[in-house]
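User: We ran a pulldown and think these components assemble together. Before we commit to crystallization trials, I'd like a predicted model of the whole complex to look at. Sequences follow.
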Amino acid sequence: MSTATLEKPTATTASDTILSLNNIEVIYDHVVLVLKGVSLTVPRAGIVAILGANGAGKTTTLKAISNLLKAERGEVTKGSIVFDGERVDKMSPNELVRRGCIQVMEGRHCFGHLSIEENLLTGAFTRRDGNAAIKRDLEKIYTLFPRLKQRRSSQAGYTSGGEQQMCAIGRAMMSNPKMILLDEPSMGLAPQIVEEIFEIVRQLNADEGVSFLVAEQNTNMALRYATYGYIMETGRVVMDGEAKMLRENEDVKEFYLGVAEGNKKSFREVKSYKRRKRWLS
Amino acid sequence: MSDIATRPAPSLLASPLVKFGLIVAAIVVALAIGVRLDTSNTLYAIFVDPFQQMVQAPDLLVQTVWEGLVSGVLYALIALGFVLIFKASGVFNFAQGIMVVFAALTLVGLYEKGVPAFLAVIITLGVMFALAVTIERVVLRPLVNQPDIILFMATFGITYFLIGFGEALFGGNPKQMIAEQLYLPKGAVDLQILGGLVSLQKIDIAAALIASLMIAALAAFFQYTRIGRALRAVADSHKAALSVGISLNQIWVIVWFTAGIVALITGIMWGARSDVSFALEIVALKALPVLILGGFTSIPGAIVGGLIIGIGEKLGEFYWGPLVGGGIESWLAYFIALGFLLFRPQGLFGDKIIERI
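Assistant: Here's a predicted model for the assembly, 638 residues in total across the polymer chains.
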């Protein structure tokens, strides 16, 4: 923890920042270099999107933060992660959830054999503030997601994809988080449901002040709800900016929103910007 | 997925009950004819005579079923230990049998060293807890995310370690269980029923009662407590459990400790019926057919499977054993399990496999 003191200045100077990644590098299985120096920040009570194609490193970035990497033999080998003014890169997921940073994994991962209500209650595992508070929050989740209330006693494995996604977000909310890392919430869902889910993200953000870091392939949707976006490619952040700016950027339009004008082939050929050498900063 | 038009018309045979009924009816008819044509009387001896005996001497039948029930309860207890660990950590714990022996040996050994009986029980529980923590630290944690087979082999290691450790501490000789000091009843209750005498050992009655209580307590623990819910969550998906902040290490210690408690109770009960020795470990292997029957992931399955195997074994030995010269008790359980593997590999109560994405 001696390095924690070194990092302190950056952490305290940015008290309006809830999460900052500084040049992190992730290696799987001791050999496969997946993230090559990623830096990003999430403002307190903000919604930030990570965009990019398959294999760009979005999920790995989120897992590096929540430290679920270890379960997949991945490891943060360089850089630092500061959550809420504290170095967290050596912490277990359990400790992170206690501090208010929880991940909703890609593909939802509800507990199939538990009922929806039991699923939500497992989210409160780390809480120590008593049953009354947990019950109150459960009711809050049910008002947010009336559909979950209807299905509270059905086995989660038999509910629809949208319901499972809601269950997974509700379960994360039950831990009383400051920040939710949301991985690919739109995966396999109908556009209408995706919209519903993003609306709830916005509502949670506005009402509860929860910060979100959302990894998405559905660039269009993500940029409508996020305030800031990072675009990743092969383990690096290649571009970042205000959501509005990204929405209007020609390259982004062409490659992620699918509004092409010419017939350009590769992202590399058209990039009108420079890769930011953040790892030298 | 399926278009109505392409679906086959619902057939009577589609209902498993109807199918089962038809098969049974066919067997009965075939037997009825077979027995008439039978000249050497083998079919008669296998299919008719034992049932006639059962009807003629119901008191013997009751006695046999009771004995089967009691050993079934003990099989169920051992199987329960397996199921707990298998559900929570996905490890088939080969060491469960030796944990039973080790717990019983520790208890008796402590008593022999002059520790009062109930204090010895408490210390033994402490030892089982220490064992759980040690196994989690030394075996499970370093091997996390390794293939299942490696963890399985590691439990072999635990087995041999416990055998050696137990022998070094308490010696290899069979010991007497301290049943009296633990206020377990002795003697037998003789019932005058069905025109005969049925004798029930009091210790067996106690075993059945204690086992039922413990199973009920475990079920309640799993269903209604925060930790119980977390245990089921871990059984469902390790990754998702990690993501909501459930600490796997903590859960594993709890599960192995629970299995240790179950082992201790099994050890006391089994030890009181025979004696405490390493031979008990062989009996623990009977848990395998019980698990195949009941399903590896189901607690009710372990119980029902244990009872079926226990009763089936005793009935088989008593009524059909003489036909092949006796001694079928030792393999009948595996035979029944084989049948189950063929027709219902997930067991009677195994997890329904939920398939939807």
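The longest strand of chain B covers residues 188-193. That may be worth checking against your pulldown data before setting up trials.

User: Thanks, that helps.
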